[in-house]
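To: structure subgroup
Subject: Chain for Friday's discussion

All,

I'm putting the inputs and outputs inline so they're searchable in the archive.
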Amino acid sequence: MRAVSEALRPYAWRGLTPEMVSRLALAAVNGHGAADAAPVTRHDVRMGVLVDFLTGCQWRSLTAGAVSRQLVTALDTWHHESRWLEIELRRLLDGDG
């Protein structure tokens, strides 16, 4: 969360698009600085997760820390749900259910 928050702070992030905030957040999550946000493409499935999340809430009224927590939580939730779906699909395909 700290990396995401630090990636947002140098910018007037409340004026950025949900796509750009998501790109900065993912660059931080990937261990890169804001200068390396360009390699995060809109084809990265996580971009859709974060853009959808931001579009559905009043994120501009939050602090950078709060937005960061929410973004990381949205990614964690998506990751866990994706893993669970993968496990369930594998179980069904193997004929265990």
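Points worth raising on Friday:
The radius of gyration is 15 Å.
The mean pLDDT is 90.

D.
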